[in-house]
Predict the 3D structure of the following.
Amino acid sequence: MGAFGTGLRRICGVTAAPTAAEMASQIRAALRETSTVELRLDWLRSDTERTRLLRWVKKHKTSRYVFLATCRQTAGGGKFAGGFEAEIHWLKQAREAGCEWCDLEIETLRELPRASFRALGLPPCVLLSAHDFRRTPPLSRVLRLLHRNNADAVKIAANARTIADSVRLLRTARRTKNFVAVPMGEVALPVRILALREGSALAYAPVAAATAPGQVSLSELKHLYRAHQLTRRTQVYGVLGDPIGHSFSPLLHNTGFAARKMDAVYLPFLVHELRDFLDAIPDLGVRGFSVTLPHKQSILRHLDDCEPLAAAIGAVNTVVVRRDAKLYGCNTDYVGVLRALQRKLRIKGSHVLLFGAGGSARAAAFALARAGAIVGICARRERAARELARAVGGEVVPRRALRTEFFDAIINTTPVGMHPRGAISPLSPRELHCRLVMDLIYRPQRTQLLKVAAQKNIATVSGVEMFLAQGIAQWEIWTEQHAPEAVMRAAVLGALRSEEKSRSRP
């Protein structure tokens, strides 16, 4: 594959900005992380800026780096308003500036005269690409069309509506040489990270602005997921939920893997339908996974076995994929609630209200009841509240009673107030009559509910304590090792602090 190197794995930093100065800054940042950089010439706002950038490239280009020029027309999903002749002109200019590769869309190729594109003066190596932003098309047909033109490498970028769609691209990467697989969309994000280990010649990652749906930043791809180090022997774990973009679980678990120098990676899976994910487990090589909203209860019917406590709770947040491919479920939310509360509350004999009746509420209710608390359940779904109260020997508390009844602790188990809608509180100030308020949401670390409680001089417990405790317990179940707790905790708390600082800036 020419300058990329046959069989070599490469992360390609994508630079895209409206001005040459911004692009040059991004190129410098990209080269600190990788030796392969894509120049999105179509993102530059004018021909003058394109000229400036290519002059800068010619001045600073060295043989240590590989530059790939792209000037994608709007018809192919890019920003370049010119026609195919103008696109070819800028790709020729990119060659003069020292770019060894260019990305040529199949749509542009159809506009060219019958003569081979080799005679056009393009960069010496051509990556012929096909993009479908609506779906994942029949891949064998697209591949035949691409290979007909004798390019140095071919690329298929396709929107994956399901995990199964993205897995089809992975399978193609395994059996096709000089092929770049680019699954697009949030559903495809985990497979995008795994692309290099499956044989894709490149994995794209933006330095700043995303240029395609579902991209992972260059920094995250290299340092959080260590995509360039993943192999077929790498053990894959993940978290599945809907939504999932808010989760800090990848940061928590991958920090632990890196600290212990383990060949493992933890990925976020956006899962609309459980069967879509479960069917992909063999292809992805998944060894275990976390389960979050809304699947903690529905996952039970897909398990081969389950620990008695999780079965009693009726919710699972941790699954082990055994060597025989059978799924074993357990619940570490139970541990997380107790560890988080015990530092500030004598649980035995306390009157604790749970707001919500979902999977997290079930784990909390069982944990508290078994620790000797008197448990009240208040939830929008009255039937679910009654069933949970009956299961733990607790009581149903109507919402109107919160204005007058006093509790030792109130715990929010709903997603109301979760990032990015962190300005909302599930309960009003007049509904908080208690000594302590805990929110199972950890992002933001100080939710609006906790702020309201603090204003009333009520003690608070952040959901980050539960998140850390349950996540560390998961890590130890999967790895059968003692977790590097201090490092994992520092990574999550550091990220939360940075996020809060960025939000507070004007």
Notes: The mean pLDDT is 94. The domain at 346-461 is CATH 3.40.50.720 (Rossmann fold).
